[in-house]
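Assess this one:

_____
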Amino acid sequence: MVSKQPVCPQRVRSVPKQFSWLDHRLVHERYIEQCSHPAAALYLFLVTVSDAKGLSFYGDDSIMSRLSMDFTTLESARTNLMQIGLIAWKKPLYQVLSLDPVREQNVRVSMDRPMSLKDILNQAMGVAHD
């Protein structure tokens, strides 16, 4: 096996306090192949600015300015990332999603009143009841 040594040992990177990092599964599980170039740029930006839970509140104008995108390109990139399961978005909040498989959750059904499909789905996703 070839021994790998850093070319610049004084600049070996580590995961910073801000928790910005990229998961190898983006390549190994072929997510990156499903991303347009603008979507990859948006994903990199969101991973960089999000907190440890993957959350950020950057608005469209700020993202478009920082990534030199127009609104149509941003909207397309955002849709691309949501469709392949890399982000969730509910204006104004972005969430970079875990690449871990989603765990099955038991849905608690209340027998004192009928539940709509919306209620059941909200409960399964942990969304507060209206």
